[in-house]
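Reopening this ticket.

The earlier resolution said the output was attached, but the attachment link was broken on my side. Pasting everything inline this time so it's all in one place.
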Amino acid sequence: MTKPKEGPGRKPEWLKKPLPKAGALREMEGLLRERSLHTVCESARCPNKGECFEHGTATFLIMGGVCSRNCRFCNVDGGRPAPLDPEEPRQVADAAAQLGLSFVVITSVTRDDLPDGGAAHFVATIAAVRERLPEAGIEVLVPDFQGDPGSVRLVLQASPEVFNHNLETVPRLYPRVRPQADYRRSLAVLEQAAREGRSVVKTGLMVGLGETVGEVRTVLDDARLAGVEVVTVGQYLRPSKDHLPVEEYVRPEVFEEYRKHGESLGLRVEAAPFVRSSYRAEEGYLRAGRVDDL
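Inline output:
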């Protein structure tokens, strides 16, 4: 019996990108290696890496390159993380200054091995960037800190311009896509950020993992009720054969439907196949403004 073909087949035209300039890639990669820094652009095999590196931007991945979790969609290595590098916050700040960034995006691996989940390291990195680039905006994309309100509060008190925590997918798919996470716990992180912080609150979703349109609409409803202001929705792309297969290449008109539904709720929604949590983050922040009556 012939084994059925896995996934939806070849990528459609709307998921093809031009090759980046090799020189731009080498220059950015050289700077990052010089400072022993990681980026989610490289670790997660982001399809926008070439475009972002050409424009001299990157999303810094702090707390090392090994995650304490092993989500089935993510290309970041899972395993036992190394101790935190106390020099990393300064290196991130120096690299951001060298790149001349006006908006700095900082994310991390999940560090369930640390008592505070790495919250204090986020705060130290924010402080270092603020000292080096006092006029720059800062977006943090944080893990769930195992639902610890104290860790979430610590990051909120550092007042990043944007506080981002990704819901990633619909509740039904959590056991398959991110079994060590919990949908309600992630919603609670976002609710706390909206209630206690002064930052723009943001979340992100991947589609193409087998969710229905109705389920995505419900997640957008939940995000709005939690106090989220900005949502990104992009196509899941399989990093390797060891990861979950793509169930569907979602058509551009479906992304447009998600955008319209979110905006009807009062959300600012960036929805398109290549949209990612940190893609063109500064543009998204400047367009977002504030949502009234959250």
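Reporter confirms the inline version is readable. The radius of gyration is 18 Å. The chain has one domain: 20-288.
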